[in-house]
Design a protein that fits this description.
With 495 residues, this protein is an alpha/beta fold. It has 2 domains: 152 residues, Leucine Aminopeptidase, subunit E, domain 1 (3-Layer(aba) Sandwich); 322 residues, Aminopeptidase, CATH 3.40.630. Helices cover 36% and strands 19% of the residues. The chain has 14 helices and 18 strands. Strands 7, 8, 9, 10, 11, 14, 15, 16 and 18 form a 9-stranded mixed sheet that branches. Strands 1-6-5-2-4-3 form a 6-stranded mixed sheet, sandwiched between helices. Strands 12-13-17 form a 3-stranded mixed sheet, covered by helices on one side. Helix 2 runs parallel beside helix 3. The chain is elongated. The model has no long low-confidence stretch (mean pLDDT 96).
Length: 495
């Protein structure tokens, strides 16, 4: 999809479809100029019919009375409830409608009558349009999204083209994340994930290191070794280094869980919905997507990404409940459930990354606990942090990108819940109590005092029955976290 900015007045714009937003209870579409009496009357009547209700659409045929062949009016709801996500969602629905009609190009008038900054509005329109036509059709003979339409944005914003360019980079990174996350387990074992990381590193001038099974064991990654030893698909430990900041600047560390398929191991999961466990690699995919985006944006910053990747399978060599393993940080962990495997590989990733790169801040991403879905549902990710300043910045990025998060507490009482009587720590808390938090408490043992935020994206990483319908999230993986983290990294540079 090609997207560009244009400054021509709307009444003079020659286009197949001229699209304008309309607030609820207002009589005039935003930014739509006066045409002629005939067309103006039809526009007015259409506005009355849709009443500005969010995602209600009316299409008017001009019959060559004006330069635009058609005028599309899209409702965006009440003015006092407008958000960038409303714009993103409606822009996505407009784009889907245009594509379904087989139209080759269209124009959207960027609204300037709202509380949202024009730059944010432009980004939201671009993201909504670009992401709305995403469809994972790699393994289908029939491809659904051929011949995507071109889009022009009418705006007076001087920096519009640069905003569009950057927004395309970010939304393309989201689509890349979705593509990798949606890959079936037979097509994406840990080795494949390593190849994908090397490819984006070569394309974007990053350093990529991938440790093999033997290297993982020899370096003391006890968590990755244990979880991966039951599968014929050997584990990988992936490191990406992006260094475009000052040489002395400490990097930000991103760690993503990538279990390419999770059976639960010896603690076998129920068969129902086990096919969705290909999405247990989504944390790692988010991290790869972020690295792709920031390298293409050429952000002046240093970032290191670590993606420990395994396949968790039941086998004669699988690790067992009752085992005691030694993590990279030197602590021993009692295994009570082999389906609590993500925290084991994350602990190794966090421990290694903090020791070797001495980061200024750490973020990890994982489809970690079903308890997070019980607590927060499937539209909000849980976060746990040891640093209020860092979590506050994350929340600000969450608000700007509409990738919602909710912070859960972490104190000594929760840390005590993961202490073991036979080892240093155990990989489960106490019964079903505070499952999301105790998982984070386990990870905190590998973090220490470094500013850290843990993202539990078990509910938000892919579309589930209770997921709120949005035009730019159709089915499968969502790419959750990419837009949020890129926003955080971008704004950390500005400050």
């Amino acid at each position: 999809m090609r997207i560009r900015a244009d400054t021509i007045p709307s009444e003079k714009k020659k286009t197949q479809v001229l699209c304008a937003f309309c607030f609820e209870d207002e009589n005039t579409p935003i930014g739509l100029g006066k045409f002629n009496k005939k067309i103006d009357q039809i526009v007015s009547q259409s506005v009355k019919e849709i009443k500005g209700k969010k995602n209600k659409i009316a299409i008017i045929h001009s019959h060559k009375d004006i330069p635009a062949e058609r005028v599309l009016i899209a409702g965006i709801g009440k003015k006092n409830k407008i958000t960038s996500d409303v714009i993103r969602d409606v822009a996505g629905n407009i784009t889907k409608k245009i594509h379904d009609l087989g139209i080759k190009e269209f124009t959207i008038i960027v609204p300037n009558k709202s509380s949202i900054k024009t730059s944010q509005t432009i980004s939201a329109i671009v993201e909504g349009a670009n992401l709305s036509l995403y469809d994972f059709d790699l393994f289908r003979k029939e491809k659904s999204n051929k011949n995507q339409p071109d889009l022009s944005l009418l705006t007076s914003e001087k920096n519009a083209q640069n905003i569009i360019k950057n927004s395309i980079i970010v939304s393309d990174a989201v689509k890349f994340t979705r593509d990798v996350a949606n890959l079936p387990p037979n097509e994406c074992p840990p080795a494949k994930l390593g190849e994908i990381a090397k490819k984006i590193a070569n394309q974007n001038k990053m350093k990529c290191t991938v440790f093999s099974k033997n290297e993982i064991k020899s370096k003391g990654f006890g968590g990755v070794t244990a979880v991966g030893q039951g599968s014929k698909n050997e584990p990988r430990f992936i490191i990406l280094e992006y260094r475009n900041g000052k040489k002395e600047q400490k990097p930000i560390l991103l760690v993503g869980k990538a279990v390419t398929f999770d059976t639960g191991g010896i603690s076998l999961k129920p068969g129902e919905k086990m096919d969705e466990m290909k999405f247990d690699k989504c944390g790692g995919c988010t991290v790869l997507g972020v690295m792709k985006a920031i390298s293409e944006l050429k952000l002046p910053i240093n970032v290191v990404a670590i993606v420990p990747s395994v396949e968790n399978m039941p086998d004669g060599e699988s690790f067992r409940p009752g085992d005691i393993i030694k993590l990279f940080n030197g602590k021993t962990a009692e295994i009570l459930n082999t389906d609590a495997e993500g925290r084991l590989i994350l602990a190794d990733g966090l421990g290694y990354g903090i020791k070797h790169y001495q980061p200024s801040a750490v973020m990890d991403f994982a489809t970690l606990t079903g308890a997070c879905i019980v607590a927060l549902g499937t539209n909000v990710a849980g976060i746990v942090s040891n640093n209020s300043k860092l979590s506050s910045k994350v929340k600000s990025s969450s608000e700007r990108t509409s990738e919602e998060v909710w912070e859960l507490p972490l104190n000594d009482d929760y840390m005590d819940m993961v202490k073991s009587k036979v080892a240093d720590i155990k990989n489960l808390g106490i019964g079903r109590a505070a499952g999301t938090i105790t998982a984070a408490a386990f990870l905190a043992n590998s973090v220490g005092n470094v500013p850290w935020v843990h993202f539990d994206i078990a509910g938000t990483a892919w579309i589930q029955p209770s997921t709120k319908s949005k035009s730019y999230n159709s089915h499968g993986a969502t790419g959750f976290g990419v837009r949020l983290v890129v926003d955080y990294l971008t704004n950390s540079i500005k400050k």
